[in-house]
Design a protein that fits this description.
By secondary structure, the protein is α+β, with helices and mostly antiparallel strands. The chain is about 50% helix and about 15% strand. The strands form 2 sheets. The protein has a 6-stranded antiparallel β-sheet with strand order 5-4-3-8-7-6. Strands 1-2 form a two-stranded antiparallel ribbon.
Length: about 280
């Protein structure tokens, strides 16, 4: 009963009706009239008209010029393609995540951009007794997350400022809470292709990440390993860095990235930042 009341508390009738209409059109690909939609969904004809008209204005519905009936529009196709690309990334990345997990013995993560936070798209856990348990779908802060930093590093500074909170929350004594200091670190990420979480999110946990790019050269993800900081010596760190860069490059290659825009985009962002500093 409590769950039902909670759902009712957050219900928005107009939004529910719009989604009902969209799902109805999805199930009926042929153009269908307003009266038929209203009758099938048991909603007022005037409400169905207003919702369909608004959907059409935003290109989420289209009007058939012959019958005057409605069908789903290109807006939903556009959203579907974006969502499809996200799942396509997960499928193509999986074998490389598994490869990296086998080679390092550490938990391997794949993060993508999700407005104000990085979302865990996939996780591969090692076959050992103790490992860092990460839940797929979790949302994590960008600024103290190795994989989130790899995403931020290849965004315009204005976009970085837009998606980060006004104050960067501190998770551990090592968390970077100064935006200028974070921007300096992102410059290093662009230079080396590697992002780090030096016990910044959870004490005792160390992460090494690298960016993933798509066919257009746009950063679409950050990926890498999560392990115990205490067991990571300098020699082991260098080995892991090489493996992480290799895995990220293989994923980018499978996403049809041609490998030429990484340096170009990094140089562009660094030049923009230098010009702002001079101004």
């Amino acid at each position: 009963m409590k769950k039902k009341n909670e759902k009712a508390e957050y219900a928005v009738p107009a939004v529910d009706r719009m989604l009902d209409i969209a799902e109805f059109l999805l199930e009926h690909p042929e153009p269908i009239g307003i009266t038929e939609v209203a009758r099938a969904l048991k909603i007022p004809t005037n409400s169905a008209f207003r919702i369909l008209k608004r959907l059409a204005d935003r290109r989420y519905a289209e009007v058939d010029p012959t019958t005057g009936g409605y069908q789903l529009g290109s807006g939903f196709f556009r959203l579907g393609m974006r969502l499809s690309a996200r799942y396509d990334l997960r499928i193509k990345a999986r074998k490389h995540l598994e490869w990296l997990c086998r080679r390092t013995g550490d938990t391997v993560q794949l993060h993508t951009q999700n407005n104000g936070s990085a979302i865990v798209m996939d996780v591969v856990n090692p076959s050992v007794e103790f490992f860092m348990q990460i839940v797929v779908g979790s949302q994590l802060d960008y600024h103290c997350n190795a994989f989130g930093k790899c995403i931020l590093a290849f965004l315009e500074e204005e976009e970085i400022r837009r998606i980060l909170p006004p104050r960067l929350p501190s998770r551990t004594p090592n968390t970077i809470t100064s935006l200028p200091k974070l921007l300096d670190e992102l410059t290093s990420v662009r230079s080396t292709g590697l992002g780090y979480d030096r016990e910044e999110y959870v004490q005792g946990i160390y992460c090494v990440g690298a960016p993933v790019f798509d066919v257009s050269g746009r950063v679409i993800a950050g990926m890498g390993i999560t392990g115990l900081a205490g067991r990571l010596d300098m020699e082991e760190k260098k080995h892991i860095e090489t493996l992480v860069l290799t895995a990220a490059a293989m994923i980018s290659d499978d996403m049809a990235y041609d490998g030429t825009r990484f340096l170009e985009w990094g140089i562009k962002l660094d030049e923009q930042r230098k010009n702002k500093s001079v101004a």
